[in-house]
Structure formats: structure tokens, C-alpha cells
Task: inverse folding
């Protein structure tokens, strides 16, 4: 599967494409493939981190079953600069918050599918990227979601 590295203010991201869709983003430096989709994904990520893009427009195919995909769709529906609680998403999906949290942690396409916008009822919750919660805070600050961080 073609993979391309993108340098971001939060470190290197490796983007993976399969059958015309982005299927994974990993927090590491790995890959140098040149495909039209990977170049477009890199362009959009650079625009996002430059403050020029608030909504990604890429074909995505996150890993996991139906529940994982429904949580990913719920995360994609959270507008730039806003957050939702695990419990709110759970209520919308008719699920419990803990499996929603696990699905957020299992998001195979972080940043583009904004799991960083999902928070706990009494705190920020976790984040699976290197740097953990500090990386989540950096993404929320980038998006201007300051009310949570005060």
C-alpha cells in the first residue's frame, strides 16, 4: 500500500492509501510514495496546520467494524473548533461511553477524522498520539477550542 510522510508542527505523519481511499495515518516517519491522493492529503494537512483549512475533503476508509465506522462518522460531524463528549456521541449512537472512547482511541485516521475533538465529561480524556494529551491540547488550541483549556 502506498504510504507518504508529511511533516507537521506535531511531528511526522505517515498517510496510507488503499484502493483510492486514505485508510490510515500513523504518528511516525515512514514512506515516500507519490500518488495523486497522497499528494492531495498532504496538501490538505499542510493547509489545516497553516490555518487555511477547517474541513478535509478526502476519500476515507477507516478500519474496523460497523460500530467503529459509526463513531468515526460522528467524529467527522464535529465542526472545527468545537468538541463533543464521549457520552453525547454514545447517546446519539445508542451505546455506552466506554466503547465510544475505545473506538475514538482506535481511530485509524487521526487528525483528518478528528478524535481530538472528543472529550470526557470532566476532562479532556485521552489521546493515542505520541505526546498523548499534550498533542490533543495542541490540536484543540490550533482549532481555537480554548474554552475547554481554561
Result:
Amino acid at each position: 500500500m502506498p504510504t507518504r510522510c508529511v511533516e507537521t508542527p506535531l511531528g511526522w505523519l505517515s498517510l496510507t492509501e488503499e484502493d483510492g481511499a486514505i485508510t490510515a495515518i500513523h504518528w511516525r516517519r515512514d514512506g515516500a510514495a507519490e500518488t495523486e491522493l497522497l499528494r492531495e492529503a498532504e496538501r490538505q494537512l499542510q493547509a489545516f496546520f497553516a490555518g487555511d483549512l477547517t474541513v478535509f475533503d478526502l476519500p476515507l476508509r477507516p478500519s474496523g467494524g460497523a460500530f467503529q465506522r459509526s463513531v468515526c462518522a460522528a467524529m467527522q460531524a464535529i465542526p472545527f473548533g468545537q468538541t463533543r463528549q464521549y457520552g453525547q456521541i454514545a447517546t446519539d449512537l445508542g451505546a455506552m461511553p466506554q466503547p465510544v472512547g475505545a473506538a475514538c482511541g482506535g481511530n485509524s485516521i487521526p487528525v483528518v477524522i478528528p478524535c481530538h475533538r472528543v472529550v470526557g465529561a470532566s476532562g479532556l480524556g485521552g489521546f493515542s498520539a505520541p505526546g498523548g494529551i499534550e498533542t490533543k491540547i495542541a490540536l484543540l488550541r490550533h482549532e481555537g477550542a480554548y474554552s475547554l483549556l481554561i
